[in-house]
Amino acid sequence: MDKALEKFGNDIAIAFSGAEDVALIEYAHLTGRPYRVFSLDTGRLNPETYQFFDTVEKHYGIRIEYMFPDAVEVQALVRTKGLFSFYEDGHQECCRVRKVRPLRRALKGLRAWITGQRKDQSPGTRSEIPVVQVDPVFEGLDGGAGSLVKWNPVANVEGHDIWNFLHAMNVPVNSLHSKGYISIGCEPCTRSVLPGQHEREGRWWWEDAKAKECGLHKGNIKQEGGGENGKAAQSNGAATETDIFTSQNLVTLSRTGIENLAKLEDRKEPWIVVLYAPWCQFCQAMEASYDELADKLAGSGVKVGKFRADGEQKEFAQKELQLGSFPTILFFPKHSSQPIKYPTEKRDVNSLLAFVNALR
């Protein structure tokens, strides 16, 4: 980790929430090198966790950079589905609003991030995590696939060794640990575990133990099947996933809508359209950039749209819309019937804008 702090300087940050993460902060503090720490405040953490954050800040003389969910998105989720919908239809939607999207914003300003993942934390999803990897889900400062390095320096360290280090260094720990909580998340989704139970059994206990990831480390969950150039793929049946690309300045196209758009030879305005699947991690990674693109182009005369092209629409999209893999981005010029396919995997907002401006 010392090499990471030296190599990336101010463009790397430690993601902080639990015991492993405070061990990383202690190590970073011991190196004497400058370091940054960020954490996700979902608004639903235990009071003990907030007290823990405050204690850590005072102990190390640092300011944790807190990332909060978008208030409008939280209000919409609660208004339409209630406060505890995750008990009925799974935690992914709530975690996406409260954790994944804020994390995506945080990582957009970094070249690398440091996590406290361990292989023995969750044999179902973390047994193969490497110490250093190119982040398979999120984008970094430069945008596009491969723009973010992910360090997991305690990947090969066992839990009891982490705790031995914490006790030896006399560092702050969350008081919930003394009450039987080992893996700690949001209050409604975390409970204490009994002696002999695995630490992750206290998280989302009502769900399949093989998929206990909130989305922050979704790349740990193996996708079924394979895609072009190793991209994540899914069977032709549409998955039950929360939809993505949610800007109010973005048009959702139906099958009829995109067929009509493709047939027009003299459009009144140009369009840029993403062909996507909400379960695709590469589509999820570009969500913030594409939503920002829609907001920047609002009122400019360029329409921004999306078309869900998995499931029963996949064959049509492959034959008629140049779909090769997800996401595929098409630009429909104003005075031409032939769409132009976005040629690169660099999907940050500036690259997308440059593509649009060059063709509009």
UniProtKB/TrEMBL annotation:
Entry keyword set = Iron, Iron-sulfur, Metal-binding, Oxidoreductase
Matching entries from SUPFAM superfamilies are given as: Adenine nucleotide alpha hydrolases-like (SSF52402), Thioredoxin-like (SSF52833)
Q: Which Gene3D superfamilies match?
A: Glutaredoxin, HUPs
Cofactor requirement: [4Fe-4S] cluster
Region feature Disordered, mapped onto this chain: 219-239
Which is a GO BP term held by this UniProt record? sulfate assimilation, phosphoadenylyl sulfate reduction by phosphoadenylyl-sulfate reductase (thioredoxin)
Q: Name the CDD domains on file.
A: PAPS_reductase, PDI_a_APS_reductase
Q: Name one GO molecular function term.
A: metal ion binding
**Keyword Kinase among UniProt keywords:** no
Domain called Thioredoxin: residue spans? 239-360
Concerning NCBIfam families, the annotation shows: APS_reduc (TIGR00424), PRK02090.1 (NF002537)
Q: What is this protein called?
A: Thioredoxin domain-containing protein
Q: What are the leading ranks of the lineage? A: Eukaryota, Viridiplantae, Streptophyta, Embryophyta, Tracheophyta
